């Protein structure tokens, strides 16, 4: 398959217009065929040794999401206290999850023992299975944006909340919990940039030619 310019441009549009969404979710359910398309995209991510270490737990039940939200609330209080002064005040004003508002939750796990102990490509760097599962996250994120669905990563949450609430076996690692739903609007830039928490680093500083150089 040879992609045409308009197809290339569509991919870049999706990349640049993808946002971490935690507010403005609409209650409109995500149709099952759309959910299947999202998960098919996630399932086609690259993985070390083709081990496909991920599983996807799909959560629509509100009571389940309310339990996860409670877990967020306590983790978020502990997190807020790690920041000081004005930074803590700003942190407390941020909306950092849409667990109850978004009608769809997806928890992604990583089975580090899938396909055995010795995995092609993971022989020297054992963390490659976790990285593979994160590749599935990014596919999901981009597919969601292509479907005009907002998606937000909620990592302010103790893993144990997800193990207990979702009955996840202990041998699985938790990669993340994601809120997904249609939205009133997509923001043009990251929320954290809009509120002055953190600016986008210049690409110039991120690119190094031939060898690493400190920021200019
Ligand atoms: C691994 C990981 C974990 C988290 C996030 C991202 C990633 C990659 N982000 C979203 C993050 O704040 C966001 O991606 C950046 O601020 C950039 O914004 P856009 O994603 O471009 O909108 C995120 N956001 C949030 O509100 N609560 C959270 O718990 C997390 N956790």
Automatic annotation (TrEMBL):
Gene Ontology molecular-function annotations: 5,6-dimethylbenzimidazole synthase activity; nucleotide binding
Presence of the UniProt keyword Metal-binding in the record: no
Keywords linked to the UniProt accession: Flavoprotein, FMN, NAD, NADP, Nucleotide-binding, Oxidoreductase
Keyword Nucleotide-binding listed: yes
Reaction catalysis annotation: FMNH2 + O2 = dialurate + 5,6-dimethylbenzimidazole + D-erythrose 4-phosphate + H(+)
Class of the enzyme per the UniProt entry, highest EC level: oxidoreductase
Family named by the database record: Belongs to the BluB family.
Protein name: 5,6-dimethylbenzimidazole synthase
